[in-house]
Structures are given as C-alpha cells and as structure tokens.
Amino acid sequence: MWILGISASHNGAVALLRDGKVEVAIQGERLSRSKRQDLYIHQPSPALRDCVDYCLKAAGITLAEIDAVAASTPWQHNEFDLRRSLGDLWQPGKEALKTFTVPHHLAHAEYALHYAGTDSALILVIDGSGTFEQERRNITIQEREADPIKHIQERAKESISAYHYDGDTLSLVYRIGYPVNQELRWASERDHPSLGHIWEWASRYIFQDDSEAGKVMGLAGFGNPETFKDVRLIELLEDGRVDVRFDVLKTMLTRPNKAGVEAESDAHYCDIAALVQEETNRFLVELARFLHARAPVANLCYAGGVALNGIANENLILNGPFENVIQNGSCEDNGTAVGAALAAHHQLTGTRPREPVNDFYGRDYTEVEIADCLTRFGVTHTKFERDALVEQAADAIASGSVVGWFQGGSEFGPRALGHRNILADARSEAIKPVLDRKIKRREPYRPYAPAVIEEAVQDFFEIEGVSPVMIRIGWSKDDRLPAVTHVDRTARVQTVNRDHDPLFHALLSAIGERTGVPVALSTSYNMAGEPIVESPEDALRTFLCSGMDALFIGPFRVDRPD
Ligand SMILES: [Fe+2]
C-alpha cells in the first residue's frame, strides 16, 4: 500500500509510505531552494507538485499507484483539492483517490511514536500552533480522547498536546491552546500560552527578527542565569493551564536592540537569552512531571518545533521523570508529512508499523548522475574506491581543509547528519572564524557541532546514551576540541553508529587515526540563508561560490579550482 503524506505548512514536505514505512521524503525548500517553503493543498502549488514528483520518481511509481493521500496543516483547512495543487501531475481518473486530513498535533504525534520501539509511551507535542479548534469537526481523521485535561476554547489553536499510547490506542490526554480571532491573529498577549512565542519575543528584541530562536539559544551560553533567576515567564498551574507572563517579559525588555549591536558583547541581551533558555528548561520538566503523574509510563516521545531545543531536551532527559526520551530528527512541521501518512495507514489497516530512528529519507543520486553533473560544471574530478575516498577526506580534514561531504540520500530534517555536510578539524582554534566568514556567514557566538563515533562519545563528552539526530547536547570534557565546544562547554553532539552509517563512521574513524580524536566539526552543507543542498547541482554551485577547499561527492574528489 502506497500512501502520500503532505505537510501543508512552513517546512512543507511530502513523504511516501510503503506498507506503513517511509520510502522517501523531502522538504519543499530543498527543491525550490527557498527556505521554509510553504506547500498548499487547496490551490496551485508548484513546490508541492515538485515534491510529489520527486517522491514518485524515487519510488519508481506513478500517481496511479497511490492508494491514499493524507495532509496535515497548522493553517485553516480549505478545500483539499489535489487536482488544483498538483497541476500537471494530476491524472484524470484519480477522482476516487482516498484523501484524509489529519489534526496537526496528531500528525506530529504519529511521527514521534513511529520511532518509539515500545508498546507504551506518552507522546508530547509542543510547537507554535496547530489545528484550529473550530475546524476539527471537518477533519477526516478524528482523535481519540481519554478523559483529557483540556484548556482550549472553540476559537483557539492547539499549542501543547499530549497523547497516551497503550500498545493499541493513541488517545489525547492533555491539550492547551490559545484563542485567536477570525483572522487567526492573537486575541491578547496574556491569552497566548505558547512557549514558542516567548522565543519569538526574545528573538525580535535581540535580533529585530522573530525567527532567530537558534541565535537566541547560542547567545544564552554567554548569559548569566543568576541575573534573572527569580523571574518566571511561564507557569504551569495546578489544573494544567499554562500562564505565559508576557507582562513580566515586557517589563524586562526595556532596551530593544534597534541599533543592531553585537548581542554577545552586551550582557543584557545575553542574560535575556539565558533567562528564556532557563525558563524553557524548567517549564518542560514541570510539564513532563505533571503528565507523568497522570500517565506513569517509562517512555516519552517528543516532537514539535520546540523539541529542537537541545539544551532543554538534555535537561528533560537528566531531570525529567521519564526513563527514556525518544526523538527523531524531523520534529518540525516537515515530520507531519510522515505523521499524516502514518495516521492514514492506521485508519486503513488498523496497524502502526515501527522503524528505527532514521532521518535519511532523500533519494540516492547515481554515480552517472553525479559524473554528468561534474562534467556539466566543467570541474576536474578524480574517482576513488570507497576506502581510498575515506582516506583522502580524512587527510584533507586532518590537515586543516574545509571539506564538502555529499553521500547517499539527504537528511529530511534540519540537521545534516553525515550525508550533506561541511566538515573540518574539530581540534582547530582557527577553523571556526574561517567557516563563519567564508562559508556560513555566521555570528561568532553560534557554535558548530561535533560528529563523533558512537563508541567513543563518552571519551570526549559527558552524555549518557546516544544522540543520532543531534537534538541533544553533551558537555565537552576534552580540551582538544575548541572548534566544537561552546563558551559554556556544551556541544550539540551527533553520535554516529557503524551499522547505521558505515561510510561516515569510517571517515570519523580515519580522522581519529590521524588526530587522536574520531571527531569532526560537522555543519550543514549550505551557505548562509540557503536550505541544505539536495542535488549534485546544488552541491557544486554551493561549493564553487563558498570557501570550501575540497568536495567529496559520491566516489569523486573535487578540489577548489585555482
Ligand atoms: Fe507543528
């Protein structure tokens, strides 16, 4: 059975499931090359059409073979009209194609549960906002409820949800929402209990831009959490309501950074960032305890945009009540493409197949495709056998080169995990400013992350267990890794398993043989403001206009032309 899943959202995406398992998935931005590409299901959407085409071609099927299509959106559900949205890809005769709409948080939850490997779990979803309560009755797939604690009005959007899974049934147990008016604008700041929006406030205050939560996180490491230690921005009340204290936040935001001064050199901005991070850490653990008291299970699956906060995640793992916190890489809205299709699969079959944590859902590019592309770009390239290629790349990295690494199918989520990466020597003091300036155009306070072979992670970082999708942090305990250690000694670690990704594991091991540390500075393969590269063409284009020294693409090595 083939099911197409669509995330009609920012981070819009399409996933194709075969018998309940992900065959291929792609975000709209990777193909359109426009960050956070929106996809639509009710109007012509060339980006959606291209994603569907990508998935069908990767699977070697046509639309005629699709059994059902499922979509999830955090926006208003307009008419679901594939004939309009798919344009020329639509095939006459498919009018009877089964279509499903799926509540937004349920789609996040189905995605998260898919990787749990367990028969009972609590599934927590926290994001900016999801399904509009008034529209819920028009959605095809309805949620089950198990006497949930609900604080959401009819004219409101879900912002936090929790579900209990007992091995058979997935049921809503907790929901928080905030009121919105007809135009989906906020009713009032105090009626707006969304953790994500505290981050937007801080981002706007410090960077004059709502969407720089990642920068706020980086800046938090420079702040002093003691400065505002008694300030509470978000409270979990006894009955489960969430009170976001924008009034308190406002009294502190007295000096917006209108002049655009370097935030890391101003203690006030650093301390505000630290406060927002500390409050997120505290609130998340309180909420987890509240939910665990009502559903005392060992496993928590966690998704939604807020779940990308690695520091809060680590605090939840260390101080929260759950034995296991399970996350896969695509907890943003792109993951709801997978989740919507999974919900439809369950609706049609009554089953929930599982898969191990994995985010490599892009299509493979053949050696011929890559070679053709290199020839088209007119770049000199040399082909190597696998082991020789690994040796070449390890030599380059250990001797100080910045290397592009393009191997296998792309990552679906926001983190590059060893298939679309820029890599460099984690031991180098000098490499971060080079990357900041020549390639990533990053602010100096934003850290780069380490990739390390799984079996050696504890030698270099304080972290329990594994971190395959890079949404946890560890604390560096080795002074040899300045390029990947933040000012507060945190590092957003990726652990690489030999069986899961043998090629990347071999590269890190070869780096270890040369340097004594089987670790690389690992960042996503893109220039500032660009989505991660998808195709060989994207990779070549980015390589040629960046300051990278060499590119290892498929079996080929390309050196920077003189
Ligand atoms: Fe979402």
Give an overview of the whole structure.
Helix content is 32%, strand content 21%. It has helices spanning 28-32, 46-59, 82-86, 104-114, 195-207, 213-220, 246-252, 267-294, 310-319, 335-349, 367-377, 386-398, 431-440, 457-460, 502-515, 536-545, and strands at residues 2-7, 13-18, 21-27, 68-72, 98-102, 121-126, 144-151, 156-165, 170-179, 234-236, 242-244, 299-303, 324-326, 381-383, 403-406, 420-425, 449-453, 461-462, 474-476, 490-491, 494-496, 519-524, 550-553, 556-559. An eight-stranded mixed beta sheet has the order 14-24-23-15-16-22-17-21, sandwiched between helices. A six-stranded mixed beta sheet has the order 7-9-8-6-12-13, with helices on one face. A five-stranded mixed beta sheet has the order 3-2-1-4-5, sandwiched between helices. Helix 5 (195-207) runs antiparallel to helix 8 (267-294). The chain is globular and about 65 Å long. The model is unreliable at 183-188 (pLDDT under 50). The structure holds fe (ii) ion.
Silhouette: globular
Mean pLDDT: 93
The unique ligands bound to this protein are: fe (ii) ion
Query: The CATH topology of the largest domain is what?
Result: Nucleotidyltransferase, domain 5
Distance between the termini: 52 Å
Q: Please indicate the count of domains.
A: 3
Strands, helices and their partners?
Blueprint: E1 2-7, E2 13-18, E3 21-27, H1 28-32, H2 46-59, E4 68-72, H3 82-86, E5 98-102, H4 104-114, E6 121-126, E7 144-151, E8 156-165, E9 170-179, H5 195-207, H6 213-220, E10 234-236, E11 242-244, H7 246-252, H8 267-294, E12 299-303, H9 310-319, E13 324-326, H10 335-349, H11 367-377, E14 381-383, H12 386-398, E15 403-406, E16 420-425, H13 431-440, E17 449-453, H14 457-460, E18 461-462, E19 474-476, E20 490-491, E21 494-496, H15 502-515, E22 519-524, H16 536-545, E23 550-553, E24 556-559
Parallel strand pairs: 1-4, 4-5, 6-12, 7-9, 12-13, 15-23, 17-21
Antiparallel strand pairs: 1-2, 2-3, 6-8, 8-9, 10-11, 14-24, 15-16, 16-22, 17-22, 18-19, 19-20, 23-24
Helix pairs in contact: 4-10, 5-8, 6-8, 8-9, 12-15
The structure holds fe (ii) ion.
